[in-house]
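Hi everyone, sorry if this is the wrong subforum. Our group has a chain we'd like a structural model of before ordering constructs, and none of us has done structure prediction before. Sequence below.
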Amino acid sequence: MLLQAPGGAQHGPAVIDALANDLFDRLSTDALLILDDYHLAESPEVNRLTERFVEEMPPTLHLLLLTRQTPAFRNLPRCRSYGEAREILTVDLAFTPEEIQALFALHGCPISPEIARRLAEETEGWIIALQMILHQLRESGPEAIETLLDRIPEALPDLFDYFATEVLNRQPPAVQRFLLQTSILRELDTEACAAVLENPEDRALLAHIEAHVPFLAMSGEGRYRYHHLFQEFLRRQARIRLGSLEPLHRRAAAFYGHRGEIELAITHLMSAGAFQEAAEHLSTAAERMIRHGRYAALAEWIDRLPVEILHQHPALLRHRGDAARLLSRFEEALAWYERARQEAARQGDLQEETQALIGQALVFLDTVQPAQAMPLLREALQRSRRRAPEERIRLLGLVAENLLNAGQLFRADRLLGWIRCRDAGALPPDVEPRLRIRQGRLAQARLQAEALLRASPWGTGRQRIPRSHREATVLLAWICAMTGEGEAARRYAEQGLHVGRDLRSPIVECVALARLGHGWLSGPDYDLRRAEEAYRESLQVAETIRVPRFEVEAHLGLTLVEGLKGRPGLAIAHAQRGLEILQEAGDAYLATAVQLALGIAVLWNGDPRAIEWLEAAIQSGTRCRERYFSTLGRLWQALAFIHQGDHSASLSSLRDALEVIRAEGYSFMLTGVPLLGIRDPGSRLLLLQKALATRLFPDYLQALLPRALQAAALHLPFGPWSLPQTEDRAHLPLDVQTLGPFRVWRGLYEIPPEAWGRTRARRLFQFLIAHRRRPVHREEILETLWPERDPASAALELRVTLHALHRALEPTRRPGQPPFYVIREGEFLRLNPHAVFHIDADLFTALLAQAQERERFAPDEALSLRRQALALVQGEFLEECRYEDWAMPEREHLSALYLSAAEQVARALAARNAYEEVISLAQRILERDPYHEAACGLLVQACWALGRRALAVRIYERFRQRVRKDLGVEPALSLAALLAELSPDVQRPGGFTG
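Answer:
Right subforum, don't worry. Here is the predicted structure as tokens:
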């Protein structure tokens, strides 16, 4: 209005100055001035006045311009650099998938993350489109979201009306024509626009459109793209207003073809209906598209070709099979390859027929089914006799990989060596580490797989082909699981899982999930629940790709899981299913692993057939020329023979195993927990001690023993005194942790929670532990544990519970053999006095008694003994039985001993000026007894001595208030008296009289 008034332009600056001065006088607090739709008023004159206002306005005023184009302010670059101007761009206002999900939830229409992602793709996070969708959902119900997404943009008629009235129809005719004709382009640059526009000179309008049309975004230097929904609107308008778009698409195809952007040329040829030309371009581009991970797009294009044109190009039929194979659609891939073979044979194209044959073989190489791949490879070799030598060598590389998959490792190694001598580049880089893995040369395999992961020869990110079971991450996960590095195995498996999902490859995902399960079954921190979850999920994915071969690793893992759970029947079922699949697939190497898992699982559960199955695994591994599984099998055999009392056979198996362990660097088999290794550190130590006693490899084993002891110590509840001795023992001691979480070890093997089977079995054992100094009459047990039951049902429950208890403590006890640890004496039950029980509560009291004896003549030793005793205490006595009357007397007795010992140790440490430790101990005492005056006094003194005087006073005051409030008495503690007890060199504030 000012500029339109007579003389307005001349007086504009004075008016702006007056306005700024007035605002300066009136605004005492921050204020915001909003100018909406600034682009409608923008002109050089308006911009000059606005800039002057910005320079003169008071500092409490903030100006917000809403505009569809960046204002042409002269000082804008300077304001940006000084941080005086902030730009909120379209991309900043676009809603992310997470924000879309939150927005819909806020409006009562909760959606899944996947739906939010699709909405972000379709709308590019544009709030107007999202609000229209929300409006429709409120009318039709949240369940209509899938239908609505499939119908975008038809489902948003109001949005297209907005585009027409507010954007397109407001543009000059030349700009409208430009928008409609260039709407077919994925990206806009001046050359592409000139190629498709009827008037090439109109390309100069691109700069104007970039400045004035809000739905154009920069996609690179000099390149732009339309907003997804706006482009769809323009295309529909173009079909209505321009008629056929075929000429535009043909011009675009010619332009991109000349520029060498073949995929864009194909897109426009398809849109123009020029399928024959599109097929010819596809034949040229297919190999490169597959190599760069564009196989899904290739499949979509091939599927759009008419059948009669497609059959003229057998290579495209084959490449369609490649795409299906890489998408893990293996049955579909075989069908496409067969069509390619038949069409190539009809056309007399021997080379293409051979390539289709190789494609079929690749399906079985990807899915590790060597029995099915070998006939196809033989036929391809026969057909390629007259082909170029390099082609034949590459084909022999596939034969070598298939021999590797079959477990024929000696033949595979020889053939690979022959190929390396002639053309090393003919071999895929992942063949070598896979060969070394299957041979059992794990250290070498790891180095090669790590190098493969670093080099990424297949490319990085999503623009590459998936390598099925050959991905470096899943190879490393397998290696780490085999060496007992559970954490590393899980980390690599998780990486493999991300790779599979990024590449949309269910087969990689399936393998990675199985390897994740292996990771959770490896290492000292193995977790049965998480392992089983990963295996079950892997089986579900395997079902979707309909290739039974990829169920096998999950069945292998579940064989071990069920064995550890004490369910040998289910373990055998999983192993047999895995072996059936492998028999048909022809993979002898993995069959060895499954046989070994079966032998281990039944050995855990006392099945006499265990040695037979272990021997089958050893013989299978020997035939494959692998060394890893057969060595583990011999270790397990040695242990099984010890349990049977056959020491001669045990020594023979142990000698054979140790020879390979030393030669191949398999020391982790005796110091760690590999997937198929010995989990019980006591059993590993037993084998080591047996070997040392018979002078087997003494130098090597003496050096290994400290590592084995260190690994075992991580599993010991309260000291190394329970390590198995050199002589064989039919019944290992039971170590029982009662001071804190209840845990039981048989030797060095911790009995897992699931082994108890029934909660009452665990509770019965705890009851007997609490009454360990006397036999307990069955009636007392019945009345205590099953007070609500009638006598007959309670007696039955006791019988079943006692059976479960025997099974948990002695899983390998043979039928008819009497129980050892818990025995019956007439109507009484008791812990066997001839069994060795190490109970932490007994050790705790024994250590305190020893400390009391040594207090006078060896105070340092007494202090050490008391600290050892306190270290045993992880919580209350039988804390699971916190409210059971029968556990209360011993709990209260032990608690009193603990508080007394902790106070004595704290005082001794205070006398030695070890105040940090005093604070820790005093706090632990107060956690158990918040009214313990001596502990509070020690805590106050320690804090004061360390210079934390304000804290010391605060602790004292809080304690005094707590005692007053809860007990209604004044504490006997005096702060002044406490401080007086400190050594004279500790400074006291003058005049304090607490």
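For your construct planning: Residues 888-911 form the longest helix (24 residues). The chain has a mean pLDDT of 86.
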